[in-house]
Design brief:
The protein is of the alpha+beta class. The chain contains 5 helices and 14 strands. Strand 11 and strand 12 form a beta hairpin.
Length: 258
């Protein structure tokens, strides 16, 4: 399925190269411009042009990009809760207990399989381009790009997305709000897990306590995106997520993290 994008050049674009307008306005990389050149087309006022064309205020800029990516995700008729959809994005609610993307031990039953079916039943051929991911036991919204340009923009501009999570933690954090600034690295004793370590990658999590008690409800906001970041940071703070067997302890009544 081909993608079509249209915009009107602004006064600030007067006299600029189309290449620079696309890079600054959309954050389009040289690689994406290459793809547009060889797998699509760029038009200015309805006429095919190169990115070296000069732009005038009021010009109509159009990008056309054919769907060339393919994947081997098998469409499966799995219930899918669609929260929002437009020409660029699909936002769905992932239930707990489901992984986002197929992996060798689990090629089926994933969110990606459900999305592939959602498009296939409408006769749409489109790669499943998942922008945000959630752990298996975490429920919440997942953003999916409907074309390569949207995927590219969100990948190169992560600040466009604010990520908030709710977690039930053990005990009551001393401070009602705070910033956990602690680098995270792979745990050498168990590479599946992560740990706070000075040699790790920078990681920051802002948090706010919504309800406090023997267990507390915490809102966490990711400022970076490390694997298991919220779970690792809250455990390091001394308040692991209730039921988190990897970073806290199991709970007989709660068997998932968020």
């Amino acid at each position: 399925m081909a993608f079509h994008w249209r915009a009107i050049a602004k006064e600030v674009d007067q006299g600029r190269l189309l290449r620079d307008v696309l890079r600054d306005g959309l954050g389009i990389s040289s690689r994406m411009l290459y793809d547009l050149k060889y797998s699509g087309s760029i038009k200015l006022n309805g006429v095919g042009v190169t990115v070296r064309e000069r732009v005038s205020a009021g010009d109509v800029i159009e990008l056309y990009l054919a769907e060339t990516a393919t994947d081997r995700i098998e469409p499966e008729e799995i219930p899918l809760a669609v929260i929002y959809e437009d020409d660029d994005l699909l936002i769905v609610n992932k239930p707990p207990g489901m992984i986002v993307h197929p992996v060798p031990p689990e090629p089926n039953g994933t969110l990606a399989n459900a999305i592939a079916w959602y498009w296939a039943k409408e006769g749409i051929t489109r790669a499943v381009r998942i922008i945000t991911r959630l752990d298996r036991d975490t429920s919440g919204l997942v953003l999916v790009a409907k074309h390569a340009l949207a995927q590219h923009l969100y990948a190169t501009r992560p600040e466009m997305i604010d990520k908030y999570y709710l977690a039930l933690v053990e005990g009551a954090p001393r401070e009602a709000t705070g910033l956990i600034d602690a680098p995270i690295a792979v745990n050498p004793a168990n590479p599946v897990t992560r740990m706070v370590a000075a040699a790790g990658r920078p990681a920051q999590t802002a948090y706010r306590v919504l309800q406090s008690g023997d267990t507390s409800l915490v809102q966490a906001r990711l400022l970076t995106g490390r694997t298991h970041q919220i779970r690792v940071h809250l455990a390091w703070l001394g308040h692991p997520v209730v039921g988190d067997e990897q970073y806290g302890q199991s709970s007989p009544s709660i068997s998932r993290q968020a």
